[in-house]
Amino acid sequence: MNDSRTILVADDDRAIRTVLSQALGRSGYQVRATSSASTLWRWVEDGEGDLVITDVVMPDENGLDLVPRIKRIRPELRVVVMSAQSTFMTALKAAQRGAFEYLPKPFDLKELMAVVERALAAPQPPVAGESEDEAGERLPLVGRSPAMQEIYRTVARLTTTDLTVMITGESGTGKELVARALHDYGRRRGGPFVAINMAAIPRELIESELFGHERGAFTGALNRGIGRFEQAAGGTLFLDEIGDMPPEAQTRLLRVLQEGEFTTVGGRNPIKANVRIVAATHRDLRQSIRQGVFREDLFYRLNVVPIRLPPLRERLEDIPLLARHFLDRARAAGLPQKQLSAEAVERLKQHSWPGNARELENLMRRLAALYPQETIDAEAVGTELSEAEPPAEPGGARGPETLEQAVERHLKGFVAAHKDGMPVRDLYDRVLAEVERPLLRLVLGATRGNQIKAAAMLGLNRNTLRKKIRELDLPVVRGLG
After folding, report:
1. Ordered per-residue pLDDT tens for the chain, 481 residues
2. Fewer CB atoms inside 10 A, N or C side of the chain?
3. Nearest to residue 153, comparing CAs of 215, 226, 103, 203?
4. Helices marked H in 3-96 — which ranges?
5. Which of 286, 371, 380, 364 is nearest to 332 (CA)?
6. Coil, strand or helix at 49
7. Cα–Cα distance for residue pair 99/155, rounded to 1 Å
8. Which domains, ranges and CATH numbers included, belong to the chain?
9. What beta strand segments (E) does 210-332 contain?
10. Distance of alpha carbon 458 from alpha carbon 479, whole angstroms
11. Angle at 137 between CA 135 and CA 138, to 5 degrees
């Protein structure tokens, strides 16, 4: 029973207070609710409450400013922060100031109740140090869609750790932005951020680029070369397009991750690897493992915390905010100030965005530079999108690629990759698994891991869904914490 646990609720919205009081009361908790931060602070000072749920914006004080004060006088008291200002910086500040959880409004009551149960049951973590956002509200990540909210919450928690992170997503989704946010707002922000793109380095030079080399280690090595691991000492090493790393470099990287040290090419003395590793790829590394081009043991060393960045077509509701953000950046770069008409925004939402946010940013720059009118209309947007589209294949119709066409295109590549040894005996099951995996992953993401809702959306029995999750080795993440 929860009748001995008291929850303190602070929100200036009477409806929110009523809903929370009723929901928590039905679960057996005692509830004290207020509309002011000052009253909440008085209750905390008096030793009341076993958990705090507070809004950020209140008439007398910002709820985020209360969190470190609460943690100083009552470090055992957990705080859940709610906010309709659902930006990355809000999630980051909540995590860095010691909040147990951050929930963007509007939130699902079942999710909130689950957070309450975790907060009251979890062992007491170390008290996080207070850290102010020195950059103000300069947002490294933009968007308020549910998919982006999950990313904000995950990234915010990871800024207090040195865990290895694997970022996956299509080209143009902002993988390096996430890597930089992990560094710039993390514990290693005082050190260097060093990035290396595996796809841009000749295969024979990757090991030297990563680990450095001694003089005379190979033809042309006239001096000792410092590698990226040494350059990033004390900071973050971002390994972009890790799926393009050649096998011999994969073996050396795995050894570094296992032993925490490395040697230069041609060297003998071990050097301590004092870096945080953040890797990224647009490839399906599990498929690369099955094809024998990526080491499975290295994958699990890198995939400690996976972050999947959704393509822009999966978060169309973020397009107005992103477009405004990119127009503001264009103006800051010296281009004329522009705005979009409502019809222009709707036209943007109809586009398939194969280039994702990078394509949108380039479009906003062109519109700002080429069109004299202050308000950009749908016709101008349509003209630029049409001119930017690649030419249609001979004999083919223009338009977005269908699922059948996408599957056929990938299968052609699969067959071509195995022309000398096609695994024909299990091809049917393997192809079905490749289609099932993203389908189930997307639905589970859309339902925030709720398997009952996911099964209903898919038209599957819940036991069948659980079996497929196990068979396909799908992670079901309801948020860290």
Report:
1. 555 789 999 998 899 999 999 999 998 999 999 998 889 998 988 888 999 999 988 888 888 888 988 888 888 899 999 888 767 888 888 888 888 888 888 888 888 898 999 888 866 543 333 333 333 344 568 888 888 888 988 998 898 899 999 999 999 999 999 999 999 989 999 999 999 999 888 877 888 889 887 876 666 666 778 889 999 999 999 999 999 998 888 999 999 999 999 888 887 888 899 999 999 999 999 999 988 899 999 999 999 999 999 999 999 999 999 999 999 888 888 888 899 999 999 999 999 999 999 999 999 999 999 888 899 999 999 999 887 665 544 444 445 566 766 776 666 655 655 545 554 455 666 677 678 878 888 888 778 788 888 888 888 888 888 888 887 777 765 543 3
2. N
3. 103
4. 14-26, 37-45, 63-73, 88-96
5. 364
6. coil
7. 14
8. 6-121 (3.40.50.2300), 146-215+225-308 (3.40.50.300), 312-388 (1.10.8.60), 426-480 (1.10.10.60)
9. 236-240, 261-262, 271-272, 276-281, 305-308
10. 22
11. 65
> Given strand 101-104, what is the order of strands in its sheet?
30-34, 6-10, 51-55, 78-83, 101-104
Tokens 């973050």 -> residue: 236
Contact 24, 116 (CB under 8 A): yes
Name the token pair of 51. 């958990």
Parallel, antiparallel, or unpaired for β 236-240 and 193-197? parallel
**DSSP designation for 265:** B
- Token couple for 179: 């890597």
Secondary structure (3-state) at 268: coil
Which residue pairs, CB below 8 angstroms and at least 24 apart, start in 450-453? 450/110, 451/476
Q: How far apart are CA 66 and CA 164, in angstroms?
A: 31
Return the structure tokens found at 325: 């953000």
**H or E stretch including 427?**
helix 427-446
- Both tokens assigned to 58: 């209140």
Spatial separation of the C-alpha atoms in residues 428 and 2, rounded to whole Å: 52
Residue-by-residue DSSP string for 340-408: E-HHHHHHHHTS--TTHHHHHHHHHHHHHHH--SSEE-HHHHHHHHHHHSPPPPTTPPPSPPPHHHHHH
